[in-house]
TrEMBL record:
Coiled coil: none annotated. This is Sigma-70 family RNA polymerase sigma factor. InterPro entries: NTF2-like_dom_sf, RNA_pol_sigma-70-like, RNA_pol_sigma-70_dom, RNA_pol_sigma-G_actinobac, RNA_pol_sigma70_r2, RNA_pol_sigma70_r4_t2, RNA_pol_sigma_r2, RNA_pol_sigma_r3/r4-like. Pfam families: Sigma70_r2, Sigma70_r4_2, SnoaL_2. Belongs to the sigma-70 factor family. ECF subfamily. Residues 33-99 form the RNA polymerase sigma-70 region domain. It comes from Kribbella qitaiheensis.
């Protein structure tokens, strides 16, 4: 239960903050929404598939909430009201900007390494989402890449209904009121959304897989992955992968499917043509990830290159999603060089 819905002294404090905010006290408004800011931002990310778009949406939603505070009648909790405003803001952005994609959404995979693979800047790409130390199991599970990517295949209303119901535990009747529609329409949207998402998201979540692996085994795999890249050790690297592994690199359009295609790509480009790697382990979208820094020689300065988000199937890596975007590094609190 949200701290804004607690009874007793805190409930009185929320009422006092609400009245102060209605009177124009912007600091009271900040204190009112502060405990919900992180979860509202995550909701905007799930809706929009971009941390930067989530920043814009949350800022716009809170501005709308501040301006509309006098119209809040208190029939629902502050949390419900803020989710209503945030969801409607995101739906406006979905209509304006469309959905975000991964390379496999655009066309078939490549069988061999493609050297001429420039960034496709005209595409709105799915982006990574930084974890926070206090995030719960459920919070991490709700931003895993496969789930957020699957959401992008849903129309805005289905996306919103599924998230509000499955992730945030609002009832169909509450969602109908939030989205200004009927309960029957919400239930219909939920049925259609579940069919699409269930077809695209593995039955076993990455959080469950990582919990089963344990921290020691995960650290061992991350070390092997990093060391193999840094030493150009193709056989050790390939041994970490499943036979049906995929490797994609937004914003680059080409992607690879299956161990032979990934072997050809890995041995041709990251293990050979990229002169020197250094790595830092991170967590992104509730998953294991590795920040890669590229240098001209082993002794030279290494600069940010990509964030490799790993998807596991048991003890092997089933997918590598490399976000080739140095601007993501500050978002994750990573150093500008190694």
């Amino acid at each position: 239960m949200s701290s804004l819905e607690l009874s007793g002294g805190r409930g009185w404090a929320v009422t006092a903050e609400l009245e102060a905010a209605r009177g124009g006290d912007d600091l009271a408004f900040d204190r009112l929404v502060g405990p919900l800011r992180r979860e509202l931002h995550a909701h905007c990310y799930r809706m929009l598939g971009s941390s930067y778009d989530a920043d814009d949406a949350l800022q716009d939603a809170l501005l709308r909430a501040w301006k509309g505070l006098a119209r809040f009648e208190g029939r629902s909790s502050v949390r419900s009201w803020l989710y209503t405003v945030a969801t409607r803001t995101c739906l406006d952005l979905v209509e304006q900007r469309g959905r975000r994609a991964l390379p496999m959404d655009l066309g078939p995979s490549s069988d061999r390494a493609v050297l001429d693979n420039p960034p496709l800047t005209e595409i709105s790409w799915l982006g990574p989402y930084p974890d926070q130390p206090g995030d719960s199991y459920e919070q991490r599970e709700a931003v895993q890449l496969a789930f957020v990517a699957a959401l992008q295949h849903l129309p805005g209303n289905q996306r919103a209904a599924l998230l509000l119901f499955e992730v945030l535990d609002f009832s169909a009747a509450e969602i109908a009121e939030m989205m200004d529609t009927s309960t029957a329409s919400v239930n219909s949207a939920l049925q259609r959304a579940r069919r699409i998402v269930n077809d695209k998201v593995p039955a076993v979540s990455q959080q469950r897989t990582l919990r089963d692996l344990g921290d020691t085994k995960i650290r061992d795999i991350v070390t092997q992955y990093s060391t193999a890249l840094e030493q150009g050790d193709a056989e050790s690297f390939i041994a970490l992968l499943t036979k049906d592994v995929t490797w994609s690199m937004p914003p680059l359009g080409h992607w690879y499917d299956g161990i032979e295609a990934v072997r050809d790509f890995a041995t041709t480009i990251p293990l050979t043509l990229c002169p020197s790697w250094r790595h830092i382990p991170v967590t992104v979208n509730g998953q294991v990830a590795i920040a890669g820094y590229l240098g001209e020689t082993a002794d030279s300065e290494h600069l940010p290159w990509s964030i490799d988000v790993l998807t596991f199937d048991g003890e092997k890596i089933a997918a590598v999603t490399s976000f080739v975007d140095p601007t993501v590094f500050p978002l994750l609190g990573l150093p500008p060089r190694q």
